[in-house]
């Protein structure tokens, strides 16, 4: 999910150069449509409340794929569509989601919306070179983060459990907080490199560091929130994506104007600082997250999961 905006430019540069920019939209649309059909006809729901919903779990795989039977034993209500939003009231969900939205935006989407302009005006790259510059460093950074962060996070929480009677405290996931600072460092230094026209390889390395920090942040937020409220994992996933998408939507309106007016070093440094400030509530959760969760209570839905 994080690497989508990173892999796309690698192919997109060659597609735009050889087939025209319109095919940069036609090809992804076709791929997305095909994947949607695969999901509809091959993926069955497995994580649902056995109290609130019917016994579809007892049907055969193909029966579920052919939409036999009812998912609900009652009429669908308007509030059924807002179940996910009910999780927003829990600070152990909302605060990490707010941070994750800035991490995704300033460690990933920011480069996607400014990369082509920077490549053309600062480094004088061709379209193909622009795609490679925008895609390869970020892709490598995220792959490194994805391949190591989950493993390290599990090592930490399992080590914590061994010392605390097998209790896996969700806050142990937040030991990764120091590594998320790679995002702030990478984004801020990238802005400095672009403003002062440093060699493109230094900017690329900074992009990779920022992407690595982004993936660390993403893994940390997902694991902490879902460990805090396991039965509501699906709802939490929806909330995280909602926050990420809404905040990322806005960056295209101000990233380049801000950079052109104040300088890339100031603009990217400011956005990196915003991400760092949004990390502070997670530091607070590291120390008192458990007491906050106990005070706010347990969500009512899906308690049989």
Main sheet: strands, sense, barrel: none
Number of strands: 0
Coarse shape: globular
Structural category: mainly alpha
Radius of gyration: 22 Å
Mean pLDDT: 89
Q: Encode the helix/strand succession as letters.
A: HHHHHHHHH
Helical element count? 9
- Unreliable residue runs: none
The amount of helix comes to over 70%
Termini separation: 26 Å
Q: Could you tell me the strand content as a percent range?
A: under 5%
Task: Offer a concise description of the structure.
The protein is built from nine helices and no strands.
Structure description:
The protein has 305 residues and is mainly alpha-helical. The chain has 9 helices and no strands. It has helices at 4-18, 23-42, 61-65, 91-121, 127-163, 177-195, 200-228, 233-262, 264-296. Helix 1 (4-18) packs antiparallel against helix 5, helix 4 (91-121) packs antiparallel against helix 5 (127-163) and helix 4 runs parallel beside helix 8 (233-262). The chain is globular and about 60 Å long. The mean pLDDT is 89.
Descriptive terms for the model:
single chain; 305 residues; mainly alpha; 9 helices; 72% helix; globular
């Amino acid at each position: 999910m994080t690497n989508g905006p990173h892999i796309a430019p690698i192919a997109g540069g060659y597609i735009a150069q050889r087939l025209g920019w319109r095919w940069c939209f036609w090809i992804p649309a076709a791929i997305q449509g095909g994947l949607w059909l695969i999901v509809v006809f091959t993926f069955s729901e497995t994580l649902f409340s056995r109290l609130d919903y019917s016994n579809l779990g007892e049907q055969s795989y193909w029966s579920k794929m052919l939409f036999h039977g009812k998912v609900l034993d009652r009429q669908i209500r308007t509030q059924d569509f807002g179940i996910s939003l009910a999780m927003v009231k829990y600070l152990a969900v909302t605060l990490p989601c707010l941070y994750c939205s800035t991490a995704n935006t300033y460690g990933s989407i920011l480069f996607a919306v400014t990369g082509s302009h920077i490549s053309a005006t600062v480094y004088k790259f061709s379209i193909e070179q622009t795609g490679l510059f925008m895609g390869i460093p970020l892709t490598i950074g995220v792959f490194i983060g994805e391949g190591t962060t989950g493993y390290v996070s599990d090592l930490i929480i399992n080590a914590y459990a061994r010392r605390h009677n097998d209790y896996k405290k969700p806050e142990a996931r937040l030991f990764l907080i120091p590594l998320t600072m790679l995002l702030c460092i990478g984004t801020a230094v990238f802005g400095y490199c672009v403003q002062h026209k440093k060699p493109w390889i230094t900017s690329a390395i900074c992009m990779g560091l920022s992407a690595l920090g982004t993936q660390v942040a993403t893994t940390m937020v997902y694991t902490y929130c879902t460990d805090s409220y396991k039965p509501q994992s699906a709802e939490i996933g929806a909330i995280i994506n909602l926050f990420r998408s809404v905040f990322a939507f806005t960056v295209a309106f101000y990233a380049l104007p801000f950079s052109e007016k104040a300088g890339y070093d100031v603009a990217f440094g400011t956005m990196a600082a915003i991400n760092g400030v949004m990390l502070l509530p997670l530091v607070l959760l590291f120390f008192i997250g458990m007491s906050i969760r106990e005070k706010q209570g347990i969500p009512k839905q899906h308690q049989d999961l």
